[in-house]
Amino acid sequence: MSLGTSDSNLTARRRKAAAFRWSCAALTSATIVLLAILIFHVCKQGLAWLDWDFLTSFQSSRPENAGIKPALVGTLWLISLTACIAVPVGVAAAIYLEEYARPSRLNTLIEVNLANLAGVPSIVYGILGLAIFVRGLGLDRSILSGALTMALLVLPVIIMASREAIRAVPPSLRQASFALGATQWETIRHHVLPSALPGILTGVILALSRAIGETAPLVMVGAATYVTFLPDGPMDSFTALPIQIFNWASRPQAEFEKLAAAGIIVLLAVLLVMNGVAVFIRHRSRKGVS
Amino acid sequence: MSEALVESLGLQRRKRLGEEGVKVVLFLCAFLSVGTTVGIITVLARETFLFFQEVNFFDFLFGTDWAPLLRPQKFGVLPLVCGTLLIVLGSAAIAIPVGLASAIYLSEYASHRVRDIVKPVLEILAGIPTVVYGYFALTFVTPVLRIFFPGIDFFNAASASIVVGVMILPMVASLCDDALRAVPASLRQGGIALGATRFEVSTRIVVPAALSGVSASFVLALSRAVGETMVVTLAAGANPKMTLDPFVSIQTMTAYIVQVSLGDTETGGIEYKTIFAVGSLLFVITLIANVIANRIMRRFREVYE
Predict the structure, then answer these.
(1) Among B160, B139, B134, B130, which Cα is nearest to B248's?
(2) ipTM of the complex
(3) What are the domain boundaries of chain A?
(4) How far apart are CA B133 and CA B235, in angstroms?
(5) CATH T-level assignment (fold) for domain B74-299
(6) Residue pairs between chains A and B whose CB atoms are closer than 8 Å
(7) Which of A16, A89, A257 sits opposite B29 (nearest CB)?
(8) Which CATH architecture has domain A53-289?
(9) B290 chain-A contacts, CB cut-off 8 A
(10) How is chain B split into domains, by residue range?
(11) What digits encode the pLDDT tens for the residues A230-264?
């Protein structure tokens, strides 16, 4: 790099630096503008269609009668079931990897595998669910098939979040427990887990909120798009919020486009509430520590 | 504690068994993730193998006609690969410059207050479901594009690329931001002390020093774009075509998989098996991308004290 000797060279370099700074700032603010446009567009399209009837009606071929009730209930079923499957397994895996695993080939395999699983496209999980749960195990296009698929999908995320929370527990806590004669599992159950709980909960909620919006795997395992009943149990067929939105969005009529927007507002509201709860838990636990 | 004493306490042995049992259960849970991978590979490989008993391997990989749902059926996957490539290139053209610029701004220039605004915005963008992005592409970006380019198809690759670019942008920005912030301040101070401007420090010292993290983030983001499904299904069309023209309707690998599974295909039919053949290709491409990203991270990482 030749150092500028004349003033004009220095001025040019300074000008270039300023231009660079402001273009970076402009591109950064472009992301904020984009988010604003997206939310504004969805609200403009959908708010007028969003009312109590929309939340409590079933799907209909007449847009003015169509509602989102079965999708909302279906999503609720799906996520609860997914959580019941994925959370215990995910947290257990995280405990093993953080507290028990010694460096060995097998454990390295698990680590590498987790890193790669996180990068597998969600539609591939859908293919897996289709082949194993829907066809292979004969669970058909049920909530259970969807939940099992979703559970496999969010498992790596839950494991990673839980590991981080467990890692943040100070070692002194464990040493104190060992010093008092507790076994490893007693230490984990009574000391490590309770103090990692807020972190784990936050991670779990964020992972599940990702699952709520996932569409592709559900399309693959065959969530229905036209459901005129509420599911009774895990073996019933179902629809879910993102599926319903996808279905409406892919219809050409303008009314269904508006319905999709109204559905999106509901979906985003659900996500907002879940994220709010996660932030609240994180905030409270931080206060508790300090 | 002597052995005899341990024996006399009695409980010791049962307790240890419990400890071991817990450990085994926990291990099995962790190992389930390996089982998932094995499951994915087995399922994909088995059906793909059956597919290749009916379709020639080279015809699939190098054929330029894709029409499995029409008669006569054609099984050349290149149009789908080409469609995916078009989306990946287009989204990279959006996400890489904007993402890197945002990351440079966040790590080199922004005050705490600005960071506290921009970071959550990026998190929100990253948390928005893909179907919502698809809706945005279809009902906002496409109409806007058609104002400027009236002749373009209603379903087109440009709209989908732009929105996929926006979708992977937060990933590029936050991974690059992490990489840039890991560069020690002393390197920047050295540059400033030698009379370099902030621009020169950023582009010739900080970014090169963080190059491993930065390029790994690019690869990861592109791999995400390859696997992206809902945006391309909704906005890019269902028209497999060998073209790099962004203004016409195309089809990606993922969009094809969705198209087939939405229809009524019987299990065991050749149409059903195409899902797995295309899915295998998708899986292999994203896996290679992820392995490359991890390699870059590990091999080219500059370690600072």
Answers:
(1) B160
(2) 0.90
(3) 7-48, 53-289
(4) 10
(5) MetI-like fold (1.10.3720)
(6) 249
(7) A89
(8) Orthogonal Bundle (1.10)
(9) 115-116, 119
(10) 3-54, 74-299
(11) 777 777 778 889 999 998 998 888 888 889 999 99
